[in-house]
Amino acid sequence: MTPLAAFGVGLATAAVLLTIVWVIQLFTRNAGLVDAVWSAAVGIIAAEYALLGDAPAGTRILLAALALAWSFRLASYLAKRMRGAPEDSRYAAARESWGAKADLYMFGFFLFQALIASILSIPFLVIAYMPEAPSLGVALAAIAVWFVSVVGEGTADAQLHRFKQKPENRGHVCAEGLWRYSRHPNYFFESLHWVTYVVLAIGAPYWWATLASPVIMAWLLLRVSGIPTIENKQASEKRRGHDEYMRRTSAFIPWPPKD
User: Fold this and answer.
1) How far apart are CA 185 and CA 178, in angstroms?
2) CB burial class (10 A; 0-12, 13-18, 19+) of residue 150?
3) Over the stretch 219-235, which tens digit does the pLDDT of each residue have?
4) Burial of 108 (0-12, 13-18, 19+ CB in 10 A)
5) Residue 130 half-sphere exposure toward CB, CA atoms < 13 A
6) Predicted TM-score of the model (pTM)
7) What is the dihedral of CA 204, 208, 212, 215, to 10 degrees?
8) Stretch 158-184: mean pLDDT, rounded?
9) Where are the transmembrane segments (predicted)?
10) For residues 174 and 242, what is the distance between their CA atoms, to the nearest angstrom?
């Protein structure tokens, strides 16, 4: 199968999965499931490319293993977080602002999410069709980046979860563990994760195309749906220590806090 045809398979997969989620939310009135399914869809696309590509088998197996482990860790965490919780404020606000056309607009938004998943998955396509396997050094470097990013994101998620479970922390901002050094360490490590495939694709034709994914992900988290949404919500809730935390703590890259 050609790379273009494989891309079509990946796009169709994401579109079908997110359409199913859209149908589910028609009954539950909770669109939050899309976040977990979107994460799983990206891993599934990577596995499809690994099956359809013609790169050396070891390269494709490594690609599928890294992408699936990342995606299902994140998808499981998001699914567990949303279980029994009200609809995320982002989707609730969108539903309210869209009014009578909310279901139609939500469907369009979900399909746009499918397109984003496919675009972000382009590095998987590049790797799945590499004519030669990466060198051992390149493979080990990619695994090292993946390990640091996935463990870092998982640690940040776990620390925030534990913080929120303590009643005495209600109304406070989390400034413990990795959150002492970054206001959004989970987002930093999520962006870093996409660098894994930039490294793994070194030497491949169209290697430069893999650079788009970490840039797009960082832009989305920094400017669109990540940090702005969360920090505006925290400010509106007037959480204790918020202003001081904003002043002292790096927004993205973990860094020692300011005095």
Assistant:
1) 6
2) buried
3) 999 888 778 777 777 66
4) exposed
5) 29
6) 0.91
7) 110
8) 91
9) 6-24, 31-51, 57-75, 104-130, 136-156, 187-208
10) 9
Cα–Cα separations (whole angstroms), residue 230 to 81, 88, 129, 184: 16, 11, 38, 9
Could you tell me which residues are beta bridge partners of residue 240?
Answer: 172
Residue type, 7: F
Alpha-carbon gap, residue 240 to 177, rounded angstroms: 18
Amino acid (1-letter code) at residue 132:
E
User: Which residues are within 8 A (CB) of 253 and not within 5 positions of it... i.e. 6 or more apart?
Assistant: 182, 188
Distance (Å, whole) CA 237 – CA 13: 39
The phi, psi pair for 138, rounded to 5°, reads -65, -45
Place of tokens 């999410």: 113
Amino acid at 256: P
**How large is the average pLDDT for residues 199-207?**
94
The amino acid at 56 = P
DSSP string, 207-224: GGGGGHHHHHHHHIIIII
Residue matched to tokens 């994914």: 213
Summarised one tens digit per residue, pLDDT across range 100-147 is 899 999 999 999 999 999 999 999 999 999 999 999 999 999 999 999
- Which of 5-14, 50-59, 142-151, 170-179 shows the lowest mean pLDDT across its residues? 170-179
**Residue 187 contacts residue 253 (beta carbons within 8 Å):** no
Burial class (CB in 10 A: 0-12, 13-18, 19+), 84: exposed
Rounded to 5 degrees, what angle do the CA atoms 15, 39, 17 make?
25
